[in-house]
Amino acid sequence: MKGEFKNCILCGSQEKKLLSEIKLATGKVRKLICAGCGLINSDPIINQEKPPKPGNRRVVRNSRVAAKRLKKILNYKTEGKLLYISASYGVFAYFAKRLGFDVLGLNPDENLSTFGREVLETHMITGDLGNTNFPEYYFDIIAAYNSLDKVRNPLDSLIMINKSLKNGGLIFIEIDDVELKDKSPQRITNSNYYFNAETLKWLLFKTGFEILDDKENSTSLVAKKVSSPRDITIPLPENYERLYHKLSNYSSFNYYKTKIPYVKFFEKNKKYLSDLFSGLFAMDTKALVERNFKKYFPGSTEPSSQD
Questions:
Q1: By CB neighbour count within 10 A (0-12 exposed, 13-18 middle, 19+ buried), where does 259 fall?
Q2: Are 273 and 207 in contact (CB under 8 A)?
Q3: In which band, very low, low, confident or very high, does the pLDDT at 55 lie, cut at 50, 70 and 90?
């Protein structure tokens, strides 16, 4: 069985097996697993839905997530040219700018890009990794959060990232781990690709990166550009066997027999109420973002008149 691409982008195999078939509003989508390495893709490619409109509750949530991500980046670099790739509201770009980074945000949604530019006064452009060109050897850092699984071809996207990074530049990646029970292709239907730690790490190696924080079984990674992309194929037959056995036996009934969905439900609603009340009394959205920046980064300098 073959997907949209004849050969697997990681191992080169043409053999794929069907994991599931899901009915979406646009039609049926098959989730296929490569029999050579375990990389999973959707067939046909899914066009992503528009994200929710910006609002103070979502800005509060984005503030919490952006601060956590930037604190991780600050462990490696405290300045430089930073490209931020994500379908979010520009809060990360605002925080990064306030911390002294020369930051550019790349967002696939025009409404969110406009919000980032006009409301938060950040440098945001509309586009995605498949249709945007950047100068070579330009960025010190590229942060790609929950985006590599949404593109048409992650290999091409990582090659573009490699070319745009300076030698020794860093890439920060966060992506769902398909091995987690609540992240399987049967539950997360809007991704075009599904990774586990093995497939993600080896795809980074193939595209010229060296993992710096090699945490076992993690799909939240920091990697350094050490070479040009490598023209190699990387078979991972044991990874495929293990993943296929694990995911082909998935059932919603067994999932709801675990405590995971109920813990997630209560945690999500707790955060929802906290974020809602935190955003109720803000004067305006930018004031709320600035207040949250000072909360997460106390002692930072005040914004200059140019900000």
A1: exposed
A2: no
A3: low
In sequence order, the 6+-apart residues with CB closer than 8 A to the CB of 303 are: 98, 290
Sheet holding 139-145, edge to edge: 124-126, 102-107, 81-85, 139-145, 165-174, 220-225, 209-211
**Bond preceding residue 237 cis, omega within 30 of 0:** no
Segment 94-129, tens digit of pLDDT: 999 999 999 999 998 888 889 899 999 999 999 887
Please name the helix (run of DSSP H) or strand (run of DSSP E) that holds residue 23, with its range, or none: strand 16-24
Quote the CA–CA distance of 272 and 61 in Å, as a whole number. Answer: 8
DSSP annotation of 283 reads S
Tokens read off for 169: 């530049």
Tell me what pLDDT residue 170 has.
98
pTM above 0.90, yes or no: no
Q: In angstroms, how far is the first alpha carbon of the chain from the final one?
A: 54
Distance (Å, rounded) from C-alpha 292 to C-alpha 60? 8
Tell me the CA distances in angstroms from 43 to 22, 53, 199, 233, one per residue in order: 10, 28, 19, 22
Q: Which neighbouring-strand residues pair with 233?
A: none
